[in-house]
Amino acid sequence: MQYSQNMASAPLLDISALSIAFGEQPAVDRIAFQIHDGETLGLVGESGSGKSATSLALLRLLPPSATVTGNLSFGGYDLLALSEREIRRLRGREIAMIFQEPMTALNPVMPVGAQIAEAVEAHHPELSRRQVRDRVLQAMHEVALPDPERRLRDYPHQFSGGQRQRILIAMAVVNRPRLLIADEPTTALDVTVQAQILALLNRLRKTHNLSMLFISHDLAVVSQVADRVAVMQHGHIVEQAPAGQLFRSPEHPYTRRLLASAPTMRTDRSRPLATLG
Ligand SMILES: Nc1ncnc2c1ncn2[C@@H]1O[C@H](COP(=O)(O)OP(=O)(O)OP(=O)(O)O)[C@@H](O)[C@H]1O
Ligand SMILES: [Mg+2]
Predict the structure, then answer these.
(1) Which atom of ligand 1 is nearest to the CA of 55?
(2) In angstroms, rounded to a whole number, what is the distance separating the alpha carbons of residues 37 and 35?
């Protein structure tokens, strides 16, 4: 397995004692986790447990009302110590993010090709227009958007929800980031499209050795992508384990409750069906 080989090397992302408060209100309390090269960590937990706050803290995108403390190291950088300019360079180029709602994250009045091109130009002003266009088309091919050359000039509303999420993923991976943060990337999609997007993310992380922080309230979804899973409740990580182990033998009562509410994962095919009548 890819990530066990890398366990000996320094983790790409190394978080310890991360606490976040909004004013006087604590939201995240001294959590710790690591992500190695090529590894996907699933972060699960109920609404309000602090998942998004954690991911936004990594990118330093929380509002000024938030107090963030702890050790946040990414590829040797101390994320909390970087200047505004340095963190902006890192965002999008080394750490990219995709969100739940593709429509709100896209500009409705700009063709999708131009939006992906903007993501490239923001970090690579040295590229010619032709080179930018080539990268845009390549990214659109990679996320399996149909007929990229023709659809480059189409607007977001001319695509389906699943295709819009593919466009956002193209924008996220076009600069070859090392870490992708995906915050509920499939929650707004129906089950079939959700499965296709998860398959795409799995393919991308293999081909690019991409590390991923995959956030969801849905343990069944997380089980399809994560190598390891961290379970959050009320701002704490209550359990963290390799995915297989967590699903086979959850230790914390809250993890057990989460598993119990995900019926698709509990179906035990090794046991005979309950006798009817
Ligand atoms: N900008 C903010 N200002 C004040 N409080 C906030 C802010 N953002 C988040 N919070 C609070 O921090 C806590 C954690 O919120 P967060 O958005 O991280 O939860 P979450 O686990 O992502 O939930 P969900 O599954 O609903 O997305 C919540 O109590 C929330 O109300
Ligand atoms: Mg959230």
Answers:
(1) 18
(2) 7
